[in-house]
Amino acid sequence: MTTALVTGATSGLGKEFARQLARERYDLVLVARDEARLHTAAAELSRQHGISAAVLPADLSTTEGRAIVEGRLAGEPVDLLINNAGIGLGKDFRDASPDELQRQLDINVTAVLRLTRAALPAMIERGSGEILNVSSVAGFFPGSPYSASKAWVTSFTEGVAAEVPPGVRITALCPGFVHTEFHQRAGVSISAPAMFWFTPARIVTEGLADLRRGKVVSIPGAHYKTIVALGRLVPHRLVRWLSRRV
């Protein structure tokens, strides 16, 4: 049976990734900070789908937490890595403390870098394996430190994809607005037309499909694809001006 490791697995997109992969009969390794929620999620998935679901409590904002997951990936290789964990701050750069900014960078960037590096050697050696890094449409437009971190995730994924041999696939999933706890946790209130909001199920379904098709950058939704395409055509100075107002 194939095995997938999912970070940020107890809520939002991570929870949906775990649910869909369990339905596909993947054994799971669930990573998050809240050990109680991990055990609840693992027991539910095991009972409903008859798969093995291991829990790996770890805070990816810390060196120690990342080392726990890196060790698991290096010692017991997986077939699929979902780098889903990520945070937003809901603050301007000048209003966030250095520690808050560093924590965001460590979760959104450093963890993706190190877990990808830990998982890849075994995948390359056996000639198969998949990594999906959750990025964001925000990464295509200059703005907050969050946007910058997601721009890095997308660029990093494209760079690694150019290096890996056939049989190993890596995708950056770049959703727009999703009905999860993300904005609430970041302390951000978003008003946008209903057409711009997607369910976690749709995002995960499209992301996994694009990964399996070998698509390096996945942008769910035709209107988001259009926004990103137009953003690449508009002068960068105008994009910055619009981003500041949005």
UniProtKB/TrEMBL annotation:
<keyword id="KW-0560">Oxidoreductase</keyword>
<protein>
    <submittedName>
        <fullName>SDR family NAD(P)-dependent oxidoreductase</fullName>
    </submittedName>
</protein>
<dbReference type="InterPro" id="IPR057326">
    <property type="entry name" value="KR_dom"/>
</dbReference>
<dbReference type="GO" id="GO:0016020">
    <property type="term" value="C:membrane"/>
</dbReference>
<feature type="domain" description="Ketoreductase">
    <location>
        <begin position="2"/>
        <end position="180"/>
    </location>
</feature>
<dbReference type="InterPro" id="IPR036291">
    <property type="entry name" value="NAD(P)-bd_dom_sf"/>
</dbReference>
<dbReference type="Pfam" id="PF00106">
    <property type="entry name" value="adh_short"/>
</dbReference>
<dbReference type="GO" id="GO:0016491">
    <property type="term" value="F:oxidoreductase activity"/>
</dbReference>
<comment type="similarity">
    <text>Belongs to the short-chain dehydrogenases/reductases (SDR) family.</text>
</comment>
<dbReference type="InterPro" id="IPR002347">
    <property type="entry name" value="SDR_fam"/>
</dbReference>
